[in-house]
Design a protein that fits this description.
CATH architecture: Alpha-Beta Barrel
Strand order of the largest sheet: 3-4-7-8-9-10-15-16
Order of helices and strands: EEEEEEHEHEHHEHEEEEEHEHEHH
Distance between the termini: 29 Å
CATH class: Alpha Beta
CATH superfamily: Aldolase class I
CATH topology: TIM Barrel
Structural class: alpha/beta
Bound molecules: succinic acid
Radius of gyration: 18 Å
């Protein structure tokens, strides 16, 4: 087998394949379908200080090659996560990355502090890019001053590697990647969903109760790939690429564009084994090409 190990800050992953936040629950939901030990990392649903019920339904709408969602960051809250969800995940040989968010900087900080004090968590992914809430999320990730403030505040209190999940809903994503890097982020993950909407022409009602939602799936993959490429040549910290990845071929494209690791998202919903298949597919590709270390592939696009 080829050497699939990659490093994200001080964290080593046994392979570069993660599952994206919000598409894999808290891990346990998927364990009947995929061996969690095969994954480089599990990234949990976004965790806030208090539990959140999310937006009213309908919250999901399927589009051509894509999925619109407006979940509204439903989650169990940090206390219940630590008590009831984390112990299960700790039983696997995979990295545990906890996605976090808040409606204010002090809420982000409170969640990060609690998690930093808790054994069994390998890294924090900061969600500054959810398009489905009025406070927090994308509000922080589309304003450069807010991005700077939240990353800087978290860096001061967080002893774990800090990954910052960027929004594609900006004019120039490299500006936000540079801010995250400048404030001490250990990596950036991109892209979160692209703001979209759909209307039922019979009822003339929006398909989502929230009217707008985030578009994910293969429909956004070329946009995500372009942004990963732009960011990877701008910052020195690792880039975790995501956006419509559903096969090893897709993952290799992102790695060639400069991603150190990748995450599968929407594909987990219709093929829960996607991440496992990608790990095997990456190994097969490297063997076929006579490359013994995946690090030799990162940023290897011939332009
Ligand atoms: C949601 O819960 O609304 C989606 C999360 C996200 O896009 O960050």
């Amino acid at each position: 087998m080829a050497d699939l190990r990659v490093n994200i800050g001080s964290m080593e992953l046994k392979n570069p394949v993660m599952v994206a936040s919000g598409t894999f629950g808290y891990g346990e939901e998927y364990s009947p379908y995929i061996d969690l030990n095969s994954l480089g990392a599990v990234v949990t649903k976004g965790i806030s200080f208090h539990p959140i019920d999310g937006n009213p339904p309908p919250r999901i709408w399927e589009t051509p090659s894509g999925l619109l969602n407006s979940i509204g960051l439903q989650n169990v809250g940090v206390k219940k996560f630590i008590k009831e969800k984390l112990p299960y995940l700790k039983g696997f040989d995979t990295r545990v990355i906890v996605n976090i968010f808040g409606t204010t900087i002090s809420e982000y900080v409170k969640v990060a502090v609690r998690l930093s004090e808790t054994p069994g968590i390998d890294a924090i992914e900061v969600n500054i890019s959810c398009p489905n809430v009025k406070k927090g999320g994308m509000v922080f990730g589309t304003d450069s001053k807010s991005t700077k403030k939240v990353v800087s505040a978290l860096k001061k209190v967080c002893s774990l590697p800090l990954l910052v999940k960027l929004s594609p809903n900006v004019t120039d994503i490299t500006e936000f990647a540079m801010i995250a890097e400048g404030e001490g982020a250990d990596a950036v993950s991109l892209i979160n969903t692209i703001l979209g909407m759909a209307i039922d022409i019979e009822t003339r009602k929006p398909r989502l109760a929230n009217i707008t939602g985030g578009l994910s799936g293969p429909a956004i993959r070329p946009v995500a790939l372009r942004m990963v490429w732009q960011v990877a040549k701008t910052v020195k910290i690792p880039v975790i690429g995501m956006g419509g990845i559903s096969s090893a071929e897709d993952a290799i494209e992102f790695i060639l564009a400069g991603a150190t690791a990748i995450a599968t998202g929407t594909a987990n919903f219709y093929n829960p084994k996607t991440a496992y298949e990608i790990v095997n597919g990456l190994d097969g590709y490297l063997n076929e090409k006579g490359i013994n270390d995946i690090k030799g592939l990162i940023g290897g696009m011939n332009a």
